[in-house]
Amino acid sequence: MKYRKKPVVIEAFQMTQERRASNEDWPNWLHEAWNREPGEGALFIDADDPQQLRLCIGTLEGVHRVLWDDWIVRGVRGELYPVKPDIFEATYEPVRSDPPGELGDSGVGTDPIEKEGA
Length: 118
Prior knowledge:
The protein is α+β, with helices and mostly antiparallel strands. The chain is built from 3 helices and 6 strands.
């Protein structure tokens, strides 16, 4: 049998070297993860990085490194995980923020935002 992934809306943030140096653009949920003790749901410094710039995420499957330009995704249950840029591009598309009460039955905004240059 074949299956199609159900449409869900996630939150995501692309971690770049510049955004690591200054966290002013980080969403609240990422700040919250940063302030947790290392473990599931936390964002923390990679202990194997002598410069202490690289980050790790505690996921449901264990600790994963976040490389520059990886997307940090917050799933439907609040879980965090890194996604490589090419996989993110193939899997996700931006959605319009609909006012409350204007979402489809699935709770997902149905109108994707047009990508720039498309």
